[in-house]
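Journal club prep — side note

Before the paper discussion, L.F. wants everyone to see what a predicted structure for a comparable chain looks like in token form. Sequence:
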Amino acid sequence: MGDRLTGKVAVITGAASGIGEASAQRFVEEGARVVLCDVQDPLGEQVAGRLGSAACYTHCDVTDEDQIAAAVDLAASKWGRLDVMFNNAGIIGAIGPIADTTREGWLKTIDVLLHSVFYGTKHAARVMIPQGSGSIISTTSIAGVIGGLGPHGYTAAKTAVVGLTKSVASELGQYTIRVNAIAPGTIPTGLTAQALAGDRGNLAAVAEHARQTNGMGIASDPMDIAHAAVYLASDESRLVNGHTLVVDAGRSVNGGSARFASSAAAMVDVEADWATHP
């Protein structure tokens, strides 16, 4: 147990698995109290139970602004404040060539990956501005900083998250509220395993893919992103605002392959897997 987040209250979306679950664990280990949000209710309840009295779970569809507002209000009513909002929930979304991308798939992708970040940021600010402090963190992607590393809709949304982060940081800094993003590389989660291997349980294949492609030969882990989130949530990063922290072992300096824009990518049916969170 550490004390880097002692006394802080956090809301984490997509917290039932992957990066969100790892971050919830690390936040609690560092002394925070955490509201875990997800649509995977059995998994979310299990994670909250394992983390003990410092955590609670609430069902939250991040495409529904009212549900995100309710999660923020739950944190404030249960523990009296909100210090950290981690907009982490996501999906892969629509895949394939741009000419074959459906309007429905495109809109759903933007709804989950971008609109949810807007809702979380908006309602966190509502609580944090009167408080005069806070840290808002959003999960973007290396696909948001370089082309060819993700599907078109995913890339557009994650790029917009980078822009929104900078824009809101310029407004909220005056209230001592920091707004930053984390851009993970390939991380072994159910989401990426489904996209890369066609099997949500094949995390080893994702870790090996990351090792072979990231330029450092290091197999990645969700905890790599959780550690970054702890830093941005803590007072150690008190001068960091409007920044996108890339955590990819150098993958983004190697260029993109545009694999998700190929027809072959459509063999993996992730477009219908809307309920999956990283």
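L.F.'s comment for the group: Residues 266-278 have pLDDT under 50 and may be disordered. Keep this in mind when we get to the figures.
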